Amino acid sequence: MNTKSLYQNRKEFYTDPISGRFNKIRLSTMSFVVFCFFLLPWLSWNGHQAFLFDVSFNRFYFFGSVFWPQDFVLISLFFIFFVIALFVVTLYAGRIWCGFLCPQSIWIKMSAFFSRFFEGKRNNRIKFRNSAFSVNKFFVLFLKHFFWILLSIVTSFTFIAYFIPVKWMFFSLISFNIFYNTFFWVLFFGVLTYFNIGWFKEQLCFLLCPYSRLQSVMFDESTLIVSYDKERGEKRGARSKGLDYKLEGLGDCIDCKKCVTCCPTGIDIRNGLQMECISCGACIDACNEVMLKLDYKPDLISFKRENQNFSNKSSSKIKFTLYFIVLLFFLCLLFYFYINRPLVHFSVTRGQYQLFNVTKDNFIENFFFVKIMNKSDSDSTYLISVKPNIFTIVGNVDLKLKPGEMNVLNFTLKTKNVNTENKFMDVFFYIFDVKNNRLIEKKSRFVLSGGF
Questions:
Q1: CB neighbours of 284 closer than 8 A, spacing ≥ 6?
Q2: Residues with pLDDT less than 70, the chain
Q3: Are 285 and 360 found together in one domain?
Q4: How many Å apart are CA 35 and CA 28, to the nearest integer?
Q5: Looking at the 3D structure of the chain, how many domains does it have?
Q6: Same domain (yes/no): 299, 424
Q7: Which of 175, 230, 358, 448 sits 20 to 30 Å CA-CA off 193?
């Protein structure tokens, strides 16, 4: 029986740092992402954390704006906009998100930095890993894993700070008064991060990330990809500097494998475009460094499009234009709903136990529940009224609510018994937001005694 596994085991590979134009861009963008990630929870805006998914009170603070579950339409539009933007960027520029901005790529790069710092360059790391266990090896591994753990805990604490106020977490931590559930989640995500940057690494991109699986759907012949020029590079082989290698039937590629040893996912781009390629440009920088030393023409490996002239390719141009129009549409829709979103949640429900009541002095009464919630970040006052004017409100018609506070008011509406055959009459409830100078209307029905 053939018992060969259908799955390939992961092979450990060791990367070498590389310098060059794309590496500088990559370091700049990654530094910006790391800076924003660690700084953002500490920013305050109008007395609140500037960016916070407050799970305790089901609200989201975003630089002075507060969003509630009732703002589901806005949240849905944002995610639709993000997905379409991902399609637009991928169609035109390939996987630049993965190579230059993705947190997974950034944290793998940081873990690789600690490995190189304590274990040395690539060849030294290989020798170190294969060497016999010793006190020195234990000490080096201890230091490396200590900084991995430190990075993981700080990352986990910052990530949780996007859901629980960071200042409360920090002062609870230093006073040893942190709640067990908060401690559990910091520890849980810390362990996951430690496992990820220490062992799982690029496998998350291959096995779990849906974007790497969907990229083939988003790509076409005009998408920017990392490409190796086979016509110019083959046949590969070593040669002496100054030798006319073309007479020997050799191409520009000297088979130094620097493009492989610098790749963060361990692939050989010379074998063609692969799912694992994250378009970071490291292989381009490594190859250009070798080409410069040999005085060869650069860009043996480069960012290219299968169809070099994007603007003249009608199908790609039409697809990109349509994506961009849809993206602009959802952006305008998102902006419209954001500007016009009510800062108060207002609903009217009829009483369920009695349709109407006829009083001794011949008034008809209906009972309503009015729910009001203050969705702004400050105290607000609300005035309630009804139309038509034939109705009289029995109950409090003004209400003051704190931020996030909700109140349910019991209202009795009454009017003179009208001699009519109609069973129902439309009634309109109005709530006036004094602070924001906005009037909101809700329609309901008043039950008359006629026809019953």
A1: 20, 22, 226, 299, 301, 302, 303
A2: 1-8, 308-314, 417-421, 449-452
A3: no
A4: 10
A5: 2
A6: no
A7: 175
pTM for the structure as a whole? 0.82
Contact between 46 and 63 under an 8 Å Cβ cutoff? The reply is no
Residues facing residue 409 across a β-bridge? 370
For every residue of 111-155, DSSP letters joined together read HHHHHHHHH-SHHHHHHHHHSPP-HHHHHHHHHHHHHHHHHHHHH
Nearest residue to 311 via CA among 206, 193, 436, 222: 222
Residue type for 250, please? L
Concatenated DSSP letters of 328-397: HHHHHHHHHHHHH--SEEEEEEE-SS-S-EE-TTSEEEEEEEEEEEE-SSS-EEEEEEEESTT-EEES--
Task: Give the C-alpha separation, 149 to 372, whole Å.
Answer: 47
Element (H, E) at 110: helix 103-119
Q: Note down the domain range covering 400.
A: 344-447
pLDDT digits (tens, 9 = 90+) for 353-411: 777 888 777 788 888 988 999 888 788 899 988 988 888 888 778 889 988 888 888 88
Residue 260's pLDDT is what?
Answer: 94
DSSP label at 201?
T
User: Within a domain: residue 415?
Assistant: yes
Whether 236 and 144 share a structural domain: yes
